Amino acid sequence: MTDFEPGESASIVSVTDKVRALAIGASVSAVHFLGDQAAFVGSEENIFVVAGEAEPAAVAVHGGGILCATSDGKRIVTGGDDGKVAALDGKGEVTVLATDAKRRWIDNVALHPDGAVAWSASKTAFIRSGKDQEKSLDVPSTVGGLAFAPKGLRLAVAHYNGVTLWFPNMTATPEFLPWAGSHLAVTFSPDNKFLVTAMHEAALHGWRLADNRHMRMTGYPGRVRSFAWSAGGKALATSGADMVILWPFASKDGPMGKEPAMLAPLKARVSAVACHPDQAILVAGYSDGTVLMVRMADGAEILVHRNGGAAIAALAWNAKGTLLAFAAEDGEAGILEL
To answer: Signal peptide: which range, if any (predicted)?
Structure first.
């Protein structure tokens, strides 16, 4: 068996020698960019920030486990088992945005382009927009995921048996989108036309928001733990199989009645995906430590990191698409400048 098996390709372009290897020294659960600084979110207490050629610098953000993280490129917002919602900015400053009155775990966080922040603890979703006071919404079961709509102040709250759509600035009753099962993550399409959840079972579920028509996306051998919209939102890349599953969303019907594209097959499960911000390129991390850059048009692959390590836990591009960061579950990490 060779060191790397890129599907059926006889040879593959490699940029592994151009990757700056990093040893974070702690388990990593996510990575985000603050400008051009890569910030690796540890599973416990710290975010490890890499500025220029400097070594990773630990910044303490929580007094325990970090359970969730999101970023808008200007700040990273995290939730912890210390009951706090914290934000880290590009200057390395940490601000505590909220502390749960009951010190419950903060399970999910979300950021709106206008700066509004949402978080959840148990069955309650919270939102704070600008200088407005905090608002909350209770849902039938523990919140599985949060996502802001790209237009307007609307929050999707995923939970058992469906998703609740909440307009916190309106008095109208929140809209409920039902589908049996446990919904663990949620995302709006960039054009605001579709809503998709990742389920506890090995499937995605979606709704066309114009008429709430259901979209079932099944056939995965494992649970989908990572998904990402392509530049322009014409496709949704997902983990959950031994190849990247790419669902088409260019038409008004989305993936209804269509087969997904399947890219970059390996003898390992895809564990993380991230799409380039401007081009039809994605990067996929695998359970054996492989990282591949993939061109969506024809499936051409570039090897970024060889197999033989822990599963890839996190991938991220900077906003300009010139830097790619990745990290394995054990803290082995790297940055590639393109």
So the answer is: none
